[in-house]
Write a structure and sequence with these properties.
Elements (H helix, E strand, L loop, with lengths): L5 E6 L5 H16 L4 E7 L2 E3 L4 H6 L2 E6 L12 E5 L1 H6 L1 H10 L17 H6 L3 H33 L16 H15 L1 H31 L3 H22 L5 H46 L4 H15 L3 H15 L4 H23 L6 H15 L7 H6 L1 H21 L20 H29 L43 E5 L4 H14 L6 H14 L8 E2 L2 E4 L6 E11 L9 E10 L5 H12 L3 H9 L3 H9 L1
Parallel strand pairs: 1-2, 1-4, 4-5, 6-9, 7-10, 8-10
Antiparallel strand pairs: 2-3, 9-10
Length: about 650
């Protein structure tokens, strides 16, 4: 293999078009300045053109334009720029110029936290979103592992209240052994939330060593009562403590000391350093918690509007952290004194945020990724059982705007609850304990009103963010509900006799249509499905349309320059085919550049095509990075001209 001056890796969450558009764009940019480059692609079929160690050693710089995890440790000692895949498509010339000529581009250091942004990018502000993505992904790694424990434990605790508020207390006349068992199992499970969240944040930063130190630090956070906020602080503390130790112990050669470092030095020193820091910072956090509880007790007999505002802001500020817990524990303490009024507002303020996320994804589904929509729908269930933590992924994605939005809805729910003197005699359970509430339907109404207000605000914010960063819709590779990440399959060896998969081979004159009338994206997809059946390419238009729509839910197929490449795979499709449609007027479609769509290149894919459609798609995506091709496609005003252009 020959040596390359530059090497690169590209990948997107869906692993189809964007991956190969970034590849082609970087190759063109390098060609313009006379530099050789090899690009490794992380697509849906796996890793294509994997970089060899010899190629890595011979390169002077590395560009990673990817929204999925790419192993960067193999590039240790090389100048490295890491950006989202969208930037690789939009700014390939700038990236190549920077990696070649910008002396401030840092050299990547092995085993450090995944470095998304160079120092020059941070100063210029071009890629603040990539730095935030690092923080966000590590937090979501913790949340995805924590959330099932919260759901399981919270629901079991809530169900235990069916037998009475004090049914788990052996000293109470309401005591029921089965309720006690449910409450104990549920409480124990929920108590795992803090150490697990802490551990898996640390694991995302510094792998297995971070996981070990994170569990220990998380237990200290739990035992000192710092809650969710302590878990987050502890997670980053543990993760970066390991990074620091890896740096300090680097002089010890791995060959002789790798086992000693992993089994002894990292865990012992890591737990000591991280644990001590966590211990000492937990004291002021605990004092703050106690002070807030005292303040809230003093507020009980003041204005219900002011009290509701304070409770709403506190409950939605850190979702289970010390501020939230101060309100919750105050309500619990007052319950023991027979005051059921205070807890009603606290519960309302805690239930509203997760419900708000469900309303938000209903109001503006196109602004959220498929994983976010799924999480929002599940949050209807979580919120209904008083599990506030389901709102965490949404708050963490855009905290400066989303957290205040949650606060508004929580405050409204709490204020209305206090004004109408609603009483809730249980510290947990959500809507499961409605039979115990003095005005159950009115209480639910106030919570829903608060959640609706927050939901509208969240949907508006998400819509603006989606327009601003259209291609980042599926940036997050961690599913917060399942914890699954986009995985890369082993590369499949290619042979010289491999088929070229030229898109022109599956396009005919009958599959091209001009001046099609459509008012929306869905109108276009419906037309394509009917067009396929009309041309004998498929037998069921409804099934093909459903597959088109399902693919759009996973991530928009809108590209740029007014072009979209929707595709559908279904058993009713006979063989691979390409459709080209030009619209009479443009329609709105989520795109790279925010412009509407007037040209559609669509693929019909049989159920079992051995991955052929991915090759057709990737080759078409590469064509769309060539300005001359786009200009000729836009200028073509006859079916014959379009067919000739694509076939050549």
């Amino acid at each position: 293999m020959g040596k390359y001056q530059l090497i690169a890796a590209t990948g997107c969450a869906t692993g189809i078009a964007h991956t190969y558009m970034a590849q082609e764009a970087l190759e063109q940019a390098a060609k313009k300045v006379g530099v050789s480059i090899k690009v490794e692609t992380h697509g849906q079929t796996g890793v294509d053109d994997p970089l060899t160690q010899a190629e890595i050693d011979g390169a002077s710089g590395v560009i990673i334009a990817s929204d999925v995890d790419v192993d960067a440790d193999r590039f240790a000692g090389k100048k490295l720029i890491r950006v989202p895949v969208a930037q690789g498509i939009r700014e390939p010339d700038q990236l190549v110029d920077r990696i070649l000529n910008d002396k401030s581009v840092p050299v990547y250091k092995s085993k450090e936290v995944k470095e998304k942004v160079s120092s020059s990018q941070s100063n210029s502000g071009k890629n603040g979103d990539t730095w935030w993505n690092t923080i966000y992904v590590s937090l979501m790694n913790g949340v995805s592992h924590m959330l099932p424990l919260v759901v399981a434990g919270g629901v079991l605790v809530a169900v235990s209240f069916f037998w009475g508020i004090n049914s788990a207390d052996p000293k109470s006349s309401e005591y029921n052994y089965f309720a006690y068992l449910l409450n104990t199992i549920g409480s124990t499970t929920m108590n795992l939330m803090v150490p697990v969240l802490c551990a898996y944040i640390a694991e995302a930063i510094s792998k297995r060593s971070g996981l070990v130190v994170g569990f220990a630090t998380g237990m200290i956070a739990f035992n000192t009562g710092t809650g969710f906020l302590g878990a987050i602080v502890g997670g980053y503390l543990a993760g970066y403590t390991i990074i620091l130790l890896q740096h300090l112990l680097k002089p010890l050669p791995d060959k002789q000391f790798r086992g000693l470092k992993a089994i002894f030095l990292y865990p012992v020193l890591g737990v000591l350093i991280s644990g001590m820091i966590m211990w000492f910072i937990s004291l002021p956090m605990k004092d703050l918690n106690t002070g807030m509880m005292t303040f809230l007790k003093g507020m009980e007999n003041t204005s219900p509007v002011l009290l509701g505002l304070i409770i709403g802001v506190m409950a939605a500020s850190d979702f289970g952290g010390p501020i939230n817990k101060a309100a919750y524990l105050t309500g619990t303490a007052l319950l023991a004194q027979g005051n059921f009024y205070f807890m009603a507002g606290v519960s309302a303020a805690c239930i509203a945020p997760p419900l708000a996320t469900g309303f938000a994804v209903l109001f503006n589904p196109k602004a959220y990724s498929s994983n976010e929509r799924s999480a929002g729908y599940v949050n209807f269930l979580l919120g209904s059982t008083h599990i506030t933590e389901g709102a965490i992924p949404f708050a963490a994605k855009n905290p400066l705007l989303n957290i205040p939005s949650f606060m508004v809805g929580s405050a409204i729910a709490a204020i209305l609850t206090y004004v109408t003197r609603i009483q809730v005699p249980a510290p947990h359970g959500g809507f499961i304990i409605l039979p115990l509430v003095n005005h159950p339907f009115l209480w639910v109404l106030w919570i829903v009103i608060g959640a609706l207000v927050s939901g509208v605000l969240l949907a508006m914010i998400a819509g603006r963010q989606a327009k601003k960063h259209a291609v980042a819709d599926n940036v997050g590779t961690i599913d917060v509900l399942t914890g699954e990440t986009t995985e890369v399959q082993p590369a499949q060896p290619e042979t010289k006799a491999e088929v070229a998969f030229d898109p022109g081979d599956i396009l005919t004159l009958n599959n091209i249509q001009l001046n099609v009338e459509a008012q929306s994206r869905d109108d276009v997809l419906k037309y394509l499905a009917q067009f396929a059946v009309q041309n004998g390419l498929a037998t069921d238009a409804d099934k093909v349309l459903n597959k088109y729509l399902k693919r759009e839910e996973e991530g928009s197929t809108g590209m740029q320059d007014g072009i979209a490449i929707p595709h559908a795979q279904d058993a009713t499709i006979h063989s691979s085919a390409m459709l080209v449609v030009k619209l009479a007027q443009p329609v709105e479609w989520q795109t790279f550049d925010g412009k509407p769509i007037d040209t559609i290149i669509s693929f019909l894919i049989p159920e079992n095509d051995s991955g052929a459609h991915l090759k057709y798609l990737s080759n078409t995506a590469k064509l769309l990075t060539h300005e001359d091709f786009i200009q000729q496609l836009k200028a073509a005003n006859s079916k014959e001209a379009i067919l000739k252009l694509i076939k050549q």
